[in-house]
């Protein structure tokens, strides 16, 4: 259990913003979160960001936030953890409060990707692999890693490409009701199944997109209506060939186990979930690793509609990374943004009476995972 | 093929580590085994990073070695299926290039 509460949330729309700079997106989200929190005194800032230096030539994001918002000479930092940068930034903020050093912290996440070419962004994303390895030299990519997992998953379970398409369709349908989501055009199962192949068996709709966007939170040890019951983080193998069980992502499993243990709850208690569906296959594995469904049976839950917003374990009611969008450093914060709205009862695809919510944020090919459990109090 | 085996438990890997990640006390020692193995899983990469774009689409396979509990990531010379037998053709720029048997 933590003594940390969420006081304010802010988020830009996710999508393509050629006319907005990374700083403008970041500040827009931060200002919304500060206003939502009633403009408290902020003691520290953490910003999750992955490729600002690599493709936007901009670092020092923490100091930029403090300076532009006039927060004073407070401590700030940028936090990098690949696609889990946002989740890890939140965890740093929570630990700053838990340590007694801070009362109130502004945590943000941002990424600006759409100005760069696909090959530049792909190159930058590949920095989240172990590039000094035979695996990278063979030509493995991020979608490739999850493609290898998917083919084995099909082989061992009886699941097929149709089940992955059902994940993508569900998240697209959720995004249609979320005005901040990147994709708001309906898609059909046929369209998803027959889309251009990225890496067999994953097609275009099975892969999260490039996105511009930012999200922010104000957290504090002062009480509010949303309590962060637990925060947990784990690391895992940085290479596919080191996996004990190819169909398991230990960082997700272990961060989930720790988060449940610290919160004193189990998967059966969670009412609404945001998880890291960087690929449709990842969502299927994550719902198994987090204990919502049995190992090798996540695909059956998808087929039965149990992970829809109307199902018994609603997953990615925001549209997820696949359709809400995946501005890498902002993703982990956007998950919390959406879950706080669920707990406040004001979310798109609102889950009736949601009280306990779980967010899981993944970085690399299973290298980092954070899990946060939130409670309406 | 060179692999690494723990000197105090049964952990083996294609890459070396400072300490055995399984028993946390043993040290890994190099050993030679046959590179022949079976395709455990695979993918065909159509959208490739710039440095591999000229050979796309190409096949990446995770090979389970016959002689040790070790998997190795390799690039194949042809498309494969799970269960296919494969052998090391050569090392090139730090990558294992395998051929289907």
Structural write-up:
- The complex is a heterodimer of chains A (377) and B (101).
- By secondary structure, chain A is α/β, with parallel strands linked by helices.
- Chain A contains 14 helices and eleven strands.
- Chain A has a nine-stranded mixed sheet with strand order 3-2-4-7-1-8-11-10-9, sandwiched between helices.
- In chain A, helix 1 packs across helix 3 (61-68) and helix 4 (85-98) crosses helix 14.
- The mean pLDDT of chain A is 97.
- Chain B is elongated and about 45 Å long.
- The two termini of chain B are 17 Å apart.
- With 101 residues, chain B is an all-beta fold.
- In chain B, strand 7 (85-92) and strand 8 form a beta hairpin.
- The mean pLDDT of chain B is 96.
- Chain B is built from no helices and eight strands.
- Classes of the chains: A alpha/beta (377), B mainly beta (101).
Number of extended strands of chain B: 8
**Strand neighbour order, sheet with most strands of chain B:** 4-5-6-8-7
Look at the helices and sheets of chain B and give the structural class.
mainly beta
Q: How much strand content do the residues of chain B show?
A: over 45%
Compressed to H and E, one letter per element, the order of chain A equals EHEHHEHEHHHHHEEEEHEHHHHEE
Number of DSSP helical runs of chain B: 0
Largest sheet of chain B: 5 strands, mixed, barrel
Measured by residues with Cβ under 8 Å of the partner chain's Cβ, the largest interface is: A-B, 33 and 33 residues
Q: What string, H for helix and E for strand, traces the elements of chain B in order?
A: EEEEEEEE
Coarse morphology of chain A: globular
Report strand % of chain A: 15-25%
Roughly how many Å is the radius of gyration of chain B?
A: 15 Å
> What's the rounded overall pLDDT mean of chain B?
96
Number of helices of chain A: 14
Mean pLDDT of chain A: 97
What does the radius of gyration of chain A come to?
A: 19 Å
For the biggest β-sheet of chain A, the strand order reads 3-2-4-7-1-8-11-10-9
Low-pLDDT runs of chain A: none
Could you say which overall geometry of chain B the principal axes of the C-alpha atoms support?
elongated
In terms of quaternary structure, what is this?
heterodimer
């Amino acid at each position: 259990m933590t003594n940390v509460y969420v006081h304010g949330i802010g988020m830009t729309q996710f999508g393509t913003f050629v006319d907005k700079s990374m700083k403008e997106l970041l500040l827009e989200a931060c200002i919304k979160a500060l206003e939502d929190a009633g403009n408290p005194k902020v003691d520290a800032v953490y910003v999750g960001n992955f490729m600002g230096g690599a493709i936007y030539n901009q670092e020092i994001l923490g100091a930029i936030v403090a300076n532009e918002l006039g927060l004073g000479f407070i401590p700030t930092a940028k936090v990098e953890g690949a696609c889990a940068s946002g989740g890890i930034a939140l965890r740093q903020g929570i630990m700053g409060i838990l340590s007694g050093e801070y009362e109130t912290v502004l945590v943000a996440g941002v990424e600006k990707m759409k100005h760069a070419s696909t090959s530049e962004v792909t190159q930058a994303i590949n920095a989240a692999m172990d590039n000094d390895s035979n695996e990278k030299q063979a030509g493995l990519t991020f979608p490739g890693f999850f493609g290898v997992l998917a083919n084995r998953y099909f082989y061992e379970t009886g699941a097929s490409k149709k089940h992955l398409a059902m994940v993508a369709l569900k998240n697209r349908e959720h995004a249609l009701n979320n005005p901040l989501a990147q994709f708001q055009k309906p898609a059909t199962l046929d369209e998803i199944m027959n889309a251009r192949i990225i890496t067999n068996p994953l097609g275009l709709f099975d892969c999260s997109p490039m996105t511009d966007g930012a999200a922010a939170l104000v957290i504090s040890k002062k009480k509010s209506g949303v309590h962060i019951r637990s925060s947990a983080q784990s690391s895992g193998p940085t290479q596919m060939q080191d996996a004990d069980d190819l169909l398991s992502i230990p960082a997700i499993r272990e961060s989930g186990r720790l988060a449940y243990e610290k919160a004193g709850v189990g998967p059966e208690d969670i009412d609404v979930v945001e998880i890291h569906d960087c690929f449709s296959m990842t969502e299927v594995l994550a719902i198994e690793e987090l204990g919502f469904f049995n190992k090798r049976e996540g695909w059956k839950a998808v087929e039965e509609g149990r992970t829809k917003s109307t199902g018994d374990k609603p997953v990615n009611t925001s549209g997820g990374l696949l359709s809400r969008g995946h501005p890498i450093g902002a993703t982990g914060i956007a998950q919390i943004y959406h879950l706080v709205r669920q707990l406040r009862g004001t979310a798109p695809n609102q889950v009736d009476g949601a009280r306990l919510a779980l967010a899981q944020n993944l970085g690399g090919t299973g290298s980092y995972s954070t899990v946060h459990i939130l409670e309406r109090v | 093929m060179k692999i690494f085996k723990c000197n105090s438990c049964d952990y083996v890997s294609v890459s070396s580590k400072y300490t055995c990640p399984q028993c946390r006390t043993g040290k890994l020692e190099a050993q030679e085994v046959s590179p022949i193995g079976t395709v455990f899983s695979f993918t065909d990469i159509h959208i490739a990073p710039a440095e591999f774009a000229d050979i796309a689409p190409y096949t990446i396979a995770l090979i389970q070695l016959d002689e040790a509990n070790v998997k190795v990531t390799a690039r194949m010379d042809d498309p494969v299926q799970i269960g296919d037998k494969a052998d090391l053709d050569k090392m090139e720029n730090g990558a294992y290039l395998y051929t289907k048997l």
